[in-house]
Amino acid sequence: MIHLQTKVLELSQNEKAVGVDLGIKDFAITSNGEKIANPRCLKSSLGRLKCIQRRASRKKKGSSNRKKANFKVAKIHNRVTNQRSDFLHKLSTKLIRENQTICLEDLNVSGMMKNHCLAQAIQDVSWSKFVDMLKYKAEWYGKNIIQINRFSPSSKMCNQCGLYSRYNIKRGEKNV
Known about the structure:
Oligomer: single chain
Strand order of the largest sheet: 3-2-1-4-5
Low-confidence stretches: 165-176
């Protein structure tokens, strides 16, 4: 087995920190207020994919025409995978280069996938793959990834004083 030695370029250390909230409508919303649109790679190719899959299913089993049709289906799936992977790599690299610390919510993705209404949309955004990319790139470049417990009250209002527990914001105004 061949092991390649690669040299990772050191990025400059800075004091910037950002929180990232992952979602379905918008792929991510940062604590800076930046909204990153969801590319919806699978959804944009779904119409063509259904058509090609229908054609493949009508071919006689074991025939070379069925193999050709299944190859077309595989090409579309490969294209979707490549589009999604490209988007995730570019976004994760951008976040790692700009920030020293990145805070993420610890999501129960496998539990969310059990909801059949949301499963395809959750699978299309690839949160787990994105978090994995952030983790290994942070390790490469000496950056910090903090995963916040999913049950921590990060944006809940205190029932006694009316302050938001994380940001110390009362009725939309910053309290210092």
